Amino acid sequence: MSEATPDDTRRLAGRCMCGAVQYSVADAFIYAANCHCPDCRRATGSAFKPFAGIEREKLAVTKGADQLLIFGGEKNHDARYQSCGSFLYSVVRDGAFVHVTLGSLADEPTIGPSEHIFVGSKASWFTIDDDLPQYDRHVADGPPINR
Ligand SMILES: [Zn+2]
Question: How far is the CA of 73 from the centre of ligand 1 (A)?
């Protein structure tokens, strides 16, 4: 892993599966995690959602913005491409931040997930086999449960 610090000037490209929607985001994520909550599992159809958080204005949809499927309200929603269905990002924290799905990035971000969150509600059939800290809920809700 690189020791580089997040960089506002470096841009990362991301896109949906078919390429109709494309976005550009600063490589300046403030945090990144794997979320095991039931909503993230259903939204991704997977064991957990790897995502990274950044101020909303640092993400720009560069293609297909008028073809997004928005699930939720103006200040809290999930955004997908309406045709191929790829989950691209969520607008969160009263509209101030976006959580970019790391799987939709085409370029490599400087930071990757540094913890597992909502492990208290993770899928029973999935075993976490890395050494990252595991939190019962949010990081702010208490110390890691695995150390
Ligand atoms: Zn979640």
Answer: 17
